TrEMBL record:
Compartment(s) of residence: Cell outer membrane
Similarity-based family: Belongs to the SusD family.
Protein name per its UniProtKB record: RagB/SusD family nutrient uptake outer membrane protein
Domain of life of the source: Bacteria
Primary subcellular site in the record, as a coarse category: membrane
Residues covered by the SusD-like N-terminal domain: 90-224
Stored Pfam families: SusD-like_3 (PF14322), SusD_RagB (PF07980)
Keyword entries, A-Z: Cell outer membrane, Membrane, Signal
Cellular component annotations (GO), alphabetically ordered: cell outer membrane
Positions of the RagB/SusD domain: 305-549
Length: 591
C-alpha cells in the first residue's frame, strides 16, 4: 500500500487553524483509521515526512517568509518602495485578517500537529528497523521545536499544544501559555533531538532530514532567544551557557558532525554546492525527487525575489547567467537592499560583497548594441552617444554601491548609489533608477538550465540553507559578550574566525577586529554582512530589542514601525473560531 502525505486533517481544527474540519474519510481512501495507518513503519514515515513538507512548500522558498522575516527590518525594502506585501514588509495596513498572517499561523500549527500525532504514537509503531524509532523521535522533536520557535517569535505567547488536535476538540477555549512553558518545551525537544539524531540522514540519501548538527544548532539558537524573556541576569546566564555550550560543541566537533566552513565566500552560495553544501547545518529541500517536500505546485521561487531589472536595458536580454528578473519592476514581489546594508560592506577588504552581490552586466547578445535615444534618455546619458556601440562581452550596465564620477559619459549605463537612494537612505523616487541596484546572488538557481526550463521560470529546485555553521561562531561571541564574567577576547576570536574567511586574499589582517569592537551593535552589523537575505534579520533585531531603533535609524521607508510590531497580530479567523476570544485576546497594538 502506498501512503500519501497524510490521512487526517482533523488536525487543522477550527480552534487552531480557523478552517472547517475535514472528514476523515476524505483523506483515507483505503478506509483505514489513522492509528492503523501510522502503526506501520511506511505509514509512520509518511507522517514524519509531512512535518517537513510545509517548510519548502509554504515558507522557505515562497514570498511569505521573504516579506515577514527579511522585510520589516533595516536591510531590505520593497523594490521601488512599492506597496506589494506592505502589510508585512512596511507594517502598512497590517491587520489580523491579512492572508499571509493567517497562512503562516495555519501551516506552523499543522506542522506541530503532525509532530504531536507522531510523538503520541511512536511507541505503538511496528518498526522493522529498531534504530529508526529513536531517529524518528528525534526528527519529530526537532520539527516541533523548530515550528514553535517560529510561531512564538512571530506571534508571541500562543496556545501550547502537545497533543494531537482531533475532530472531537473543535469547540474549545484556548489559553495563552507562558513564554517559560513554551520555551521549556522547545528546549526539551531540542535536547531530545540532540540525544537521538544521527550524524547522517536516515536514509542517508534523504538530504533535508534533521541530523545531529542541526539539533545542536537549534538548541543553541533557541537557548539564545530564550534569554530575551529572562528578567534576572542569573537566569540569562543559564541560557547563555546552554546556547554557548551547544554552539561550541559544533565548532569543536566539525569533523565528527560532518560540517565545515568553506575557504571563501564565493563557495558558500555557489549553485554547484547547493545540494551538498558542507557549511549547511539544516536545509529545507526543494529537490524534485525528495520525499520530504511533496510540493510540486510550490517550487522554490527565491531566485526571483532579489533581482534588479536588467533585461531590455542597453541591449541586455534575460539569460541563465544573470537570472530571472521577471519580478524586477515597480509594484512586484521583489526586495532591494537598503543603502545601509550596502554601505556596511568595505568591498576593498571584505570579499563577501562581490561574492554575494552583482553590480556588473556584460552584453549577452551575439551582436553589438548601438545606443538609442530612448535608452540614453532613460539613463540620463548625452544624446551625442546615439549610435555608439557596445560589443558582446563588454560592460553594458553597472548598478553600483559606489559613487561614480562622470557616470553619465561612460560608454555603458551607470546607476550608482546616489541614483538609487536619497542621501537619507530612502529609495529614490526616480522610476528610472529605483529598480536598479546590486542584486543578491545567494539564491541563484543553476538547475533551471540543466532541467531545460526557460530563463523566466518560477520552478526553482534549490535547497534553502536555513542554518549555517557561522551562526555557531556568532552565538558563542554574543554569549561571551553578554553573560556575567564573559570574555570579550573569546568573542573577538570567534568573530575574527568568520571575518578572516570573509577577507579579500591578502587582507586578512585588515579584516580582524579588536575586543573593543565586541558590542551588540557590532555583532548585529557583522550578522548583517554575513546573513543578509537569509531570513534571520527580523529575529536578530527582535531578540536584541533593536527592531524599532534600527528600522528608524536605517530604513526611512518604513516610518510606521512601532514597538508592538515585534509581534504580528493573532489571526482573526483563529479568534473567531474559539469560545473565548476576548479572554485569549489580540496582541497589543492590533484591533
Amino acid at each position: 500500500m502506498k501512503y500519501g502525505k497524510k490521512y487526517m486533517f482533523a488536525a487543522c481544527a477550527a480552534l487552531l487553524l480557523g478552517v472547517q474540519s475535514c472528514d476523515l474519510e476524505e483523506y483515507n481512501p483505503a478506509g483505514s483509521t489513522p492509528d492503523n495507518v501510522y502503526k506501520e513503519q511506511a505509514g509512520f514515515d509518511a507522517l514524519v515526512n509531512s512535518a517537513y513538507a510545509f517548510w519548502g512548500g509554504q515558507f522557505y522558498g515562497r514570498e511569505d517568509f521573504v516579506l515577514l522575516l527579511n522585510g520589516g527590518g533595516d536591510l531590505w525594502i520593497n523594490i521601488a518602495n512599492c506597496g506589494y506585501g506592505r502589510q508585512m514588509s512596511k507594517y502598512e495596513e497590517l491587520t489580523a485578517s491579512v492572508g499571509q498572517i493567517k497562512n503562516t499561523w495555519n501551516r506552523l500549527y499543522e506542522i506541530i500537529n503532525d509532530c504531536n500525532a507522531g510523538l503520541e504514537r511512536i511507541d505503538r509503531v511496528n518498526f522493522k528497523d529498531k534504530k529508526l524509532r529513536d531517529i524518528r523521535f528525534g526528527e519529530l522533536s526537532f520539527m516541533r521545536a523548530y515550528a514553535y520557535w517560529h510561531l512564538v517569535e512571530i506571534y508571541g505567547n500562543v496556545d501550547l499544544r502537545t497533543k494531537e488536535t482531533s475532530a472531537e476538540s473543535l469547540s474549545m477555549s484556548c489559553h495563552r501559555s507562558s513564554y517559560e512553558d513554551l520555551y521549556d518545551l522547545m528546549l526539551t525537544d531540542a535536547q531530545n533531538a540532540v540525544d537521538n539524531l544521527p550524524v547522517d540522514p536516515y536514509p542517508v540519501k534523504d538530504v533535508g532530514r534533521a541530523t545531529s548538527k542541526a539539533a545542536y544548532g537549534l538548541l543553541a539558537r533557541i537557548a539564545l532567544t530564550r534569554v530575551s524573556y529572562c528578567d534576572s541576569q542569573s537566569d540569562k546566564d543559564k541560557y547563555y551557557k546552554m546556547a554557548e555550550d551547544a554552539a561550541q560543541y559544533v565548532i569543536d566537533n566539525q569533523s565528527a558532525l560532518k560540517v565545515s566552513l568553506y575557504d571563501t565566500p564565493d563557495e558558500v552560495f555557489d549553485p554547484n554546492n547547493n545540494k551538498t553544501n558542507k557549511e549547511a547545518m539544516f536545509v529545507v529541500t526543494h529537490s524534485t525527487e525528495s520525499s520530504l517536500n511533496m510540493q510540486a505546485k510550490n517550487p522554490n521561487r527565491l531566485h526571483m525575489y532579489f533581482h534588479a531589472s536588467y533585461s531590455a536595458r542597453a541591449g541586455m536580454v534575460q539569460d541563465y547567467e544573470y537570472g530571472n528578473d521577471k519580478n524586477a519592476k515597480s509594484g512586484s514581489m521583489a526586495m532591494m537592499p537598503t543603502r545601509y546594508l550596502l554601505e556596511l560592506y568595505n568591498e576593498n577588504i571584505d570579499a563577501r560583497y562581490n561574492a554575494w552581490f552583482r553590480e556588473e552586466y556584460k552584453l549577452n547578445t551575439p551582436q553589438a548594441y548601438a545606443w538609442t535615444k530612448d535608452q540614453l534618455d532613460y539613463f540620463e546619458k548625452p544624446s551625442s552617444m546615439v549610435g555608439q556601440v557596445i560589443q558582446p562581452g563588454e560592460t553594458a550596465l553597472l548598478f553600483t554601491k559606489k559613487k561614480m564620477a562622470d557616470k553619465r559619459n561612460l560608454p555603458y549605463a551607470v546607476v550608482d548609489i546616489d541614483d538609487t537612494y536619497a542621501a537619507d537612505g530612502s529609495v529614490s523616487k526616480s522610476a528610472n533608477f529605483n529598480i536598479h541596484f546590486p542584486t543578491l546572488l545567494k539564491y541563484e538557481d543553476a538547475s533551471l538550465e540543466s532541467r531545460g526550463l526557460p530563463t523566466n521560470s518560477q520552478v526553482g529546485a534549490n535547497d534553502v540553507i536555513t542554518m549555517r555553521l557561522p551562526e555557531m561562531y556568532f552565538i558563542v561571541a554574543e554569549c561571551e559578550m553578554m553573560k556575567s564574567g564573559g570574555n570579550k577576547e573569546i568573542a573577538r576570536a570567534r568573530i575574527n574566525d568568520i571575518r578572516r574567511r570573509a577577507a579579500v586574499p591578502g587582507k586578512e589582517a585588515e579584516m580582524e577586529v579588536g575586543a573593543d569592537k565586541m558590542t551588540i551593535d557590532f555583532i548585529l552589523e557583522e550578522r548583517a554582512r554575513e546573513y543578509c537575505g537569509e531570513f534571520m534579520r527580523w529575529f536578530d533585531l527582535k531578540r536584541t530589542g533593536k527592531l524599532v531603533e534600527y528600522v528608524k535609524a536605517h530604513n526611512p521607508d518604513i516610518p510606521l514601525i512601532q514597538p508592538h510590531h515585534a509581534w504580528r497580530p493573532i489571526p482573526q479567523m483563529f479568534l473567531d473560531s474559539i469560545l473565548n476570544p476576548d479572554e485569549f485576546g489580540q496582541n497589543e497594538g492590533y484591533n
